[in-house]
Amino acid sequence: MKMFLISDNRDTYTGMRLAGVEGVVAHERDEVEGALARVLEDPEIGIVLVTEMLGRKFSDILDEIKQNRRIPLLVEIPDRHGTGRKENFITDYVSEAIGLKL
Predict the structure, then answer these.
(1) pLDDT in tens, 20-50
(2) Do 74 and 58 touch, CB atoms closer than 8 A?
(3) Considering the entire predicted model, what is its pTM?
(4) Of 43, 48, 53, 68, which has the fewest Cβ atoms less than 10 A away?
């Protein structure tokens, strides 16, 4: 099973290429849709890494895949600018899920 990156910046793309992960740099809706179409055609790609900025900008496209397909797994990753999530994201998420304050 392979991973594939869809990034909004060249630095993240280059870093992932050095780690052996193929991918593309995309900024516009049609570029993201084209990259996802390519991914969905390749049965060997099981995980798609998407930078958080693209995840926020094109959430409708990504949500459709998350809701209607089991594979590939879409994972939003922070880029060189850091994460867009608040500091206690994981703790707050778990607290909401189980209904207890941690």
Answers:
(1) 889 999 999 999 999 999 999 989 999 898 9
(2) no
(3) 0.75
(4) 68
